[in-house]
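Memo to structure team: turn this sequence into structure tokens by end of day. - J.P.
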Amino acid sequence: MPLTENRPPNVLTPLNDASSHDAPLHRRIREQLRARILDGSYATDSRMPSEAELGAIFGVSRITVRQALGDLQKEGLIHRIHGKGTFAAKPKAFQNVTHLQGFAEAMGAMGYEIVNDLRRFRFTPAEDAVALKLGISAGDTVVEIHRVRFLNRQPVSLEITWLPEHIGRRLEHADLVRRDIFLILENDGAVPLGHADLSIESILADEELVEALQTEEGAPVLRIERLTHDRDGRPLDYEHLYFRGDAFQYRFRIDREHHKGQA
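Reply from structure team:
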């Protein structure tokens, strides 16, 4: 998409008119700019006001403006081109991995529209790798589900799920176009979920992912392997999740463990 000089008028509010005065100045500027990028006031690749212009709008120094822009750049919401200026980047949807949630459950809470393209639902013999993860014997029947997840009508992920037959039978007549498997299992199937083990890596899009995610061959894709267990620790849901690298983020919070006796 070509860069554009279009700038929406009057999208920013001077800080003396802002409702909150507790946060530091650069955070208040950052939050206003972030909101305007996310709501489309600054369209993807549109040129944003210069540091001097932002300083004049908000009545602050360029150092304060730079702090706010630096935070937005770290979030991937803006990019800078030397000699040309600062441009809004395509916002990425994100999911905080602080507790176990389905994709639609997490995105719906943030106001996104989620629809699924159900491409496959079949009972099939478990391959060795799938059987090992689910704690069953190779060749035992599993349910295999393929879905492309659409976020605001744009394909963002391909989800391939395997479940033991007795669990999968509970999904046979469920609404897999609009609902998360997790919520169906918990609310309709009375299956209490416990925890999930995840591994994350970056891969390049192959022919299947190009078609499913409407991306280019060799484009970066986030591959997540997730094994979900019930409350008693039994594996019940094994998944391969493939997210477009330009459209989605997983975010983590990691606390440092403090040991007694440490300085």
